[in-house]
Amino acid sequence: MNAIPLASLPLCFGFAFVLVSACGSSSGNGAPATNTGEACQKASDCYAGLDAGSLQGAPLCLTAVTNGYCTHACTTDSNCCAIAGECPLAFPEVCAPFESTGGMDCFLSCESAAVTQAGFTDSTAFCQRYANATFICRSTGGGSNNRKVCVPN
Asked: Which of 2, 80, 103, 148 could be disulfide-bonded to 93 (CB atoms 3.0-4.6 Å)?
């Protein structure tokens, strides 16, 4: 059996690190990893690695959305992305009602300022790049407090 030369070990470990990092940096659909908008089956699937008790609102899994949608309750935009690590991509989130659920939740914003900040002109392309490859930009559909957010098509 041939031994690996000691001089090659740093290269091997470096390559292994790159592979592991690449595997953990995506939501599995070509989009970078996020917290809000990740797929879920129950609230405990959401905000992995964060202390859910530190979020400024209870974690939720919107199961009415295909494959689930991680979010948390809020009362204002400032409740979203309020703790370190909550919004790893540093794109704005908004607090808005979703359809007729009666509650207010955090969503990745695809309003023009957020899209432009990311260097995009197409809001759906922005959502597909930074949220999920199947997401579109649309109104939350929650009445007079509607916002434009990234959600499943």
From this structure: 80
pLDDT 10s digits, 100-135: 677 899 999 999 999 998 999 999 999 999 888 889
Domain boundaries, the chain: 29-152
CA nearest to 62, candidates 79, 81, 43:
43
In angstroms, the CA 105 to CA 150 distance is 13
Nearest to 31 by CA among 98, 91, 104: 91
| Closest-CA residue to 72 (of 25, 40, 32, 115) | 40
* Structure token digits, residue 131: 């949220």
pTM metric for this prediction: 0.76
In this structure, how many other beta carbons lie within 10 angstroms of the beta carbon of residue 3?
6
Q: How far apart are CA 1 and CA 152, in angstroms?
A: 52
Cα three-residue angle 83-86-90, rounded to 5 degrees: 100
Query: Hey, what long-range contacts does 56-61 have (CB within 8 A, 24 or more apart)?
Result: 56/80, 56/82, 56/83, 57/105, 57/106, 60/103, 60/105
Compute CA distances 98 → 9, 109, 145, 146, whole Å: 52, 13, 10, 8
